[in-house]
Design goal:
With about 260 residues, this protein is of the alpha/beta class. It has 10 helices and 10 strands.
């Protein structure tokens, strides 16, 4: 029997005010999945992520997260959902005036009854988990971009979330740092069975970690492909998906 999806979108339209970016979106994300939201620039990937996390309102349709209808959820239900979710933003979004330990401790101070010592122990564990053991007293400006991303991930994992959302995690990283972050995402997914929802345009990341994906198609303002990225490359449903998944290779073949 198929498990109930942890996230489900039904006839979803997204956008800002009266401007609809994408419409009629229907997809499911299963517990423990690594789900990639992909598409060309400006297609609404980050807008969809912000809608799923409740940062912007749903224009039309429904989003169910753990059986809670996000559009009809009470404030207490939304707060509970937030406690079970983590977000890693493009920049890491760390507070520059706070040390890494203080950044990671913040959600624990806000949402748990843990003692100061318990919080200190959790912070040390989360930093060690992302390869930053011993960096508790460093400020974001004192570490590299890749380290800031990992520190941001440690904060996103502070409350042991069931779902972690990533918005272009590889943006601004060199290939080695990007691969290290992909490996860390896989490790977290495999070790803790955390559901990962990731917005990215990086092909290396899409093929390395993606288990399922949706392709947001600018030309028709909706999803034009669903499935495992590697399978979509083998059997592309349309030229736009093939072009996206092959990038420059597609144009080279056309001009040869």
């Amino acid at each position: 029997m198929k498990n109930m999806p942890i996230i489900q979108a039904k006839n979803l339209s997204i956008g800002y005010d009266d401007n609809t970016v994408m419409k009629d979106l229907n997809f499911e994300i299963q517990k423990g999945d690594i789900f990639v939201i992909m598409g060309g620039s400006g297609c609404g990937k980050s807008t969809l992520l912000r809608t799923l996390t409740g940062l912007i309102p749903i224009q039309k349709g429904d989003v169910f997260i753990q059986d809670i209808n996000l559009k009809k959820a009470t404030e207490s239900q939304k707060k509970e959902l937030m406690k079970h979710s983590g977000i890693l933003y493009q920049s890491g979004a760390l507070f520059s005036s706070m040390t890494l330990a203080e950044n990671i401790a913040l959600p624990l101070q806000l949402y748990t009854q843990n003692t100061a010592q318990q919080i200190k122990d959790i912070v040390a564990f989360k930093l060690a988990l992302v390869g930053l053991a011993g960096f508790e007293d460093y400020y974001p400006s004192q570490i590299s971009g890749g380290m800031r991303k990992r520190a941001g991930l440690a904060r996103a994992l502070a409350l042991n979330p069931e779902i972690v959302y990533f918005d272009e995690p590889s943006a601004g990283l060199d290939p080695v740092s990007s691969k290290n972050l992909d490996d860390l995402i896989l490790q977290i997914n495999e070790t803790f069975k955390t559901t990962i929802v990731i917005v990215t345009h990086e092909l290396a990341s899409i093929f390395a970690i993606g288990k399922n994906a949706v392709f947001l198609d600018n030309t028709i303002q909706t999803i034009s492909a669903k499935g495992n990225p590697k399978e979509l490359l083998k059997n592309p449903p349309n030229e736009r998906v093939y072009e996206f998944l092959t990038r420059g290779v597609f144009h080279e073949k056309r001009t040869q």
